[in-house]
Amino acid sequence: MKSTTFQLPPELLRTTIRLDVEAELIPFFLCVTIGTTSTTIIDLIRSLSEVTKDYGILIHVDAAYAGSACIGPEYRHFIDGIENVNSFSINAYKWFFTTLDCCCLWVKDPDALTKSLSTRVELLTNNASDLKQVVDYKDWQITLNKRFRSMKLWLVLRSNVVCNIRNFLRSHVKMAKIFHLVESNNMFEVVVPRNFAMICFKIFPTTLEKELNGCNIGSGNIEAKLIDQEYANDFNRICLRR
Ligand SMILES: Cc1ncc(COP(=O)(O)O)c(C=O)c1O
């Protein structure tokens, strides 16, 4: 296991912002991740938001995949400092049992959105909007229209009690923990820490080399060669036959 956690280091962020400011640039937005989908890396929201606060930078948390897990109390610590951010999003279609597509976006200050995105034209006016009896989501986005996705999320919430959803997610994490045993096979290396239900692993280059020599399909810089799709496919076919 590599020692690095692949997180964005708060001190590096501070130094980079300082350099930007010295260069008369205006840093204004930071997007951090909770369980980014390719590796499930978790940024430290509290420490990063302390840096952005010093410079008045907006901070968004992209929790597309792993935000769902935070429905379980045992995962809440991953969003420590969440009260300091401006917005947070999860893709319910990823790990919240809702069909494609359905993204939930929470914003701390909806006025900031509506001030820049609202459209007030005569043909769109109506009493309910004028009297503020309804929320006009057209004012929260660039487009005026969006498909009605909230019903399917509502059905997921209504048809599964919260403990069932938590238990589903926990069962996926449990399977990943078992699959983590792949590391005990000396052919493979787990390349990033497992945080949720995904394991990123790769075959060791030395193992590859041995396999390839045995298969007689080539030698040289194996890792570089595997970037070639055809070569990688040939190699995978041979491995699968073994
Ligand atoms: C980390 C991450 N952020 C954002 C997105 C995009 O989400 P959306 O489908 O809502 O555009 C994805 C989609 O795969 C993702 O994995």
TrEMBL record:
GO molecular function per UniProt: carboxy-lyase activity; pyridoxal phosphate binding
PROSITE patterns tied to this protein: DDC_GAD_HDC_YDC (PS00392)
Pfam families, per the entry: Pyridoxal_deC
UniProt cofactor(s): pyridoxal 5'-phosphate
Gene Ontology biological-process annotations: amino acid metabolic process; carboxylic acid metabolic process
GO (cellular component) term, any one: cytoplasm
Modified residues (N6-(pyridoxal phosphate)lysine): K94
Bilayer-spanning residue ranges: none
Record-linked InterPro entries: Aromatic_deC (IPR010977), PyrdxlP-dep_de-COase (IPR002129), PyrdxlP-dep_Trfase (IPR015424), PyrdxlP-dep_Trfase_major (IPR015421), PyrdxlP-dep_Trfase_small (IPR015422), Pyridoxal-P_BS (IPR021115)
Keywords: Decarboxylase, Lyase, Pyridoxal phosphate
Similarity comment: Belongs to the group II decarboxylase family.
Protein name (Swiss-Prot/TrEMBL): Tyrosine decarboxylase
Record organism: Gossypium lobatum
